[in-house]
Amino acid sequence: MQNINNDYITVKDKNHLFRDLNSEGIVNADYNGYQSYVENYKRTYNESKRINTLENDVNDIKNDLNEIKTLLRNLANGSK
């Protein structure tokens, strides 16, 4: 393992990962990989949000259609 300073050592076989000797946590120094992860996460989150919105809209439309059908049946049967 290579020391990059007194507080971090390189993780074996992972040149972009370093172990913080104070907290024993792992630090990722791959900025491009991190940016790619963040962009992918945002894209996935937004897609999921869009799908949920569409599902809610479809359910609202279905409920509206059922209400219209009920009103039309009542009107056709002479009820109010």
Main sheet attributes: strand count, strand direction, barrel closure: 3 strands, antiparallel
Q: Please trace the helix and strand order, writing H or E for each element.
A: EEEH
* Helicity, as a percent range: 55-70%
Structural domain tally: 1
Q: Tell me, what's the shape?
A: rod-shaped
Question: Short summary of the structure?
Answer:
The chain has 1 helix and 3 strands. It has 80 residues and is of the alpha+beta class.
Question: How are the secondary structure elements laid out?
Answer:
Elements: E1 8-11, E2 14-20, E3 26-28, H1 31-76
Antiparallel strand pairs: 1-2, 2-3
Structural features, described:
The chain has 80 residues and is of the alpha+beta class. It has one domain (8-76). It is built from one helix and three strands; from the N terminus they run E-E-E-H. Strands 1-2-3 form a three-stranded antiparallel β-sheet, with no helix packed on it.
Structural features:
80 residues, alpha+beta, three-stranded antiparallel beta sheet
